[in-house]
Amino acid sequence: MFKKQDKRKKRISPSTIATIATVIILIGGFFLSYNYIQAKKIMAFDYISNVFYTTDYTVIEQDGEIEEETSEEENGPVTNDYIGYLMIPKINLTKGFLNKNAPDNDVEKNILVVEGSSYPDVNKGNLILAGHSGTGWKAFFNDLYKLEIKDSLYITYKNKKYEYKITNIYTQPKVGTIAIYRNYNKTTLTLVTCTNNDSTTQTIYISELIEVTDL
Predict the structure, then answer these.
(1) Position 37 confidence tier, pLDDT thresholds 50, 70, 90
(2) Which of 7, 56, 62, 137 could form a disulfide with 72 if both were Cys (CB 3.0 to 4.6 A apart)?
(3) Do 133 and 57 lie in a common domain?
């Protein structure tokens, strides 16, 4: 006599089901957490991402000196119609700047207000000023290399005085564009010039607004 086969299916124990469910939940939680962290990283990167501004000037240097110098008498700086002034007490610099649409808003004549800039009274805006370093009358930013983190910069504009503190200094290759790394929750002032004794890079000085006072 042959024994009848037991065709009843084996049941999976509740403990095994619980174990499998726990593993699935843990794996799902891991991927959700990973995706969340990655998304936050991307948001943070975008927040301080490379924002490129095209500069309408090209600086040609040899051993830190600008070529084709001209005398101040022949082609001196334009001093009329300034809408504001940059003041840096540490290096004894006081220099006016023009409206960014003015014909003489030119790095060959003045400090350049770079296209894409905001004026100081724009909340969370960024005023970007570029200038030559090296030798000659137009090397207005020649001594910026002496500046350090926490040094004070000042802008006077529309009967107000804006005080900034330097928060970041970095260099980039001289390729016709500049990448601005700043806190977009802050009102900032950015200075750009050729790196001291290096004709291949430019130095960017980021400063954040500390105080506004009436003149």
Answers:
(1) low
(2) 137
(3) yes
Please tell me whether residues 122 and 208 are part of one structural domain. Answer: yes
Domain residues for 62?
50-69+77-214
32 and 57 in a single domain? The answer is no
The H or E element that residue 70 is part of is none
Place of tokens 């975008």: 46
Averaged pLDDT of the chain? 77
CA distance 147 to 138: 19
Report DSSP state, residue 187.
-
Number of H helices, E strands in the chain: 2, 12
pLDDT in tens, 144-176: 999 999 999 999 999 999 999 999 999 999 888
Report the amino acid identity of residue 167.
T
Average pLDDT over residues 174-184: 88
